[in-house]
Amino acid sequence: MKALIKAQAAVSMAIMSSITTAGVARGFNFVNHFLPGISRSRGFQQVPLQLRGGASPNNRSFSSLLSLERASAAVTMDKTHDDREANEIEEAARTCLPLHKSLAITGSIPPPRSFGGISYLDTSSLDEKHSHRVIFVLGGPGAGKGTQSERIVDIYKCVHLSVGELLRSGADKEGYEHADLVKECLVKGKIVPVEVSLGLLRIAMDEKANEALADGEGYGSRIFLVDGFPRNFDNVNGWMKHMPSYTAVLGALVYNCPMEVLEKRILSRAETSGRSDDNLESARKRFNTFRKETQPVVRALERVEQLQSDEFGGSQLKVVNIDATGTVEDVWKATESAMNSFVTNDVLTANALLLKKEGHENMNAFKNVHVDINNGVNAVVTCDREIDGVVKKERRALQHGPTGWRCVGVERHRSKE
User: Is 148 left (phi over 0), alpha (psi -120 to 50) or beta?
Assistant: First the structure.
């Protein structure tokens, strides 16, 4: 009898070993397949099956194989996600750049032109069509968007518009047709339809643009800083559907800052801000949303810049990534440089229009051109130009006023060259 029992046990072990080896090779879970009741009812824990001498089937334990399977699945999922995101970025970029079908995200602005070798955008069509100049301001929570925007508004006389603030004010705005819808969405935490958000944005832009025309003071042809928009691809698609006829996106200021730095800033700001979302939990959620949804939008805008450069040899859209980890002054230096490049478009446009009225058509006939922007609203354009066979150094002073940029003085003297 004992011999019979030993023989049966040997056969059973051989069968189990064969099943185990085959099962591992085919990638199924032996415990769950053959012993489901035990694994569920008795809290069965999976352990590597050991054969005689401590060897594992195929020299691998079940746990190590499952780990490899999970890792392989994770790599596959990551690649699938990366491919899907890359496709979304490319699709969004192409949506923003319908070169021969309709207006691009840059509106009616033509490809870059040259003034004495300096590339610039001719923004005269924007004034003719009463289109608004727009710069997107993007960045994670605590990256300094608000702080830098305040200084931009003060120096460059721009208009800062937050879509979130416009929605909150729109919900209480008397006579606004979508007030009840906006209020309901805000109360229930729903996403406000993008066409409603953009409608409020257009109303705010029109109101601000008309202020200078009404009182004859202030600043015309101003740049609108659109804060925190677009946050995702749905926002981009909504913008392209509703806004290119009314606006021209000159570019984006993107403030980049790692999470650990943002956390310290959020905690410091929470001591005095009184904002309910100034806490680590909210900040991490907002940063995660920025990383997953907004950063791909930034990549799409950068792709638009690249596509325009490939098509025209220069881009109408300019995305400026700014390191926001430094001091406020350090970040401002980078912001100021970016803003000067945007303002230069209007300065050189005004200068070129004036020269054309004087009969000069070839803007590349001017040499050694240099543009200085002072305090956001004053500029000086210097160049060498030939007048009656004599090369003279010309200096034109321009100021930003109710009608935009205009020339306020000209100086000329014989060039030393």
Answer: alpha
CATH number of 101-347: 3.40.50.300
Closest CA to 335 of 133, 164, 117, 135: 135
Q: Is CATH 3.60.15.10 the classification given to domain 355-414? A: no
Q: Which residues pair with 387 in a beta bridge?
A: 390
Domain with CATH 3.40.50.300 in the chain: 101-347
From first to last of its 417 residues, the chain has per-residue pLDDT tens of: 444 444 444 444 444 444 344 443 333 343 343 334 433 333 334 434 343 444 444 444 555 655 666 666 666 666 677 888 899 999 989 889 865 456 899 999 999 999 999 999 999 999 999 999 999 999 988 889 999 999 999 999 999 998 888 988 888 888 888 888 988 887 776 778 899 999 999 999 999 988 876 666 789 999 999 998 998 999 999 999 999 999 999 999 999 998 888 888 878 877 777 666 667 777 788 888 888 999 999 999 999 999 999 988 899 999 999 999 999 999 999 999 999 999 999 999 999 999 999 888 888 889 999 999 999 999 999 999 887 788 889 999 999 999 899 999 999 987 665
- Where along the chain do the CATH 3.10.450.50 domains lie? 355-414
Which SS3 state, helix, strand or coil, does residue 215 take? helix
Residue ranges of E strands in 294-403 = 318-323, 367-374, 378-387, 390-401
Q: What is the 3-state secondary structure (H, E, C) of 381-404?
A: EEEEEEECCEEEEEEEEEEEECCE
Concatenated DSSP letters of 40-78: HHS---------GGGPPGGG--HHHHHHHHHHHHHHHHH
Name the nearest CA neighbour of 198 among 246, 150, 159, 233: 246
Locate the DSSP E strands across 54-166.
113-115, 118-120, 132-139, 159-162
For β-strands 132-139 and 118-120, DSSP reports them as: unpaired
Strand 223-227 relative to strand 247-256, pairing: unpaired
Give CA–CA dist 32/28, Å, rounded.
Answer: 9
d(CA 201, CA 170): 10
By residue count, the chain amounts to 417
- Across the beta sheet with 378-387, what order do the strands follow? 367-374, 378-387, 390-401, 404-414
List of long-range contacts for 202-207, beta carbons under 8 Å, 24+ apart: 202/242, 202/243, 202/246, 204/161, 204/166, 205/132, 205/159, 205/161, 205/246, 205/247
Residue type, 363: M
Give the containing element (helix H, strand E) for 202.
Answer: helix 194-215
pTM (predicted TM-score): 0.76
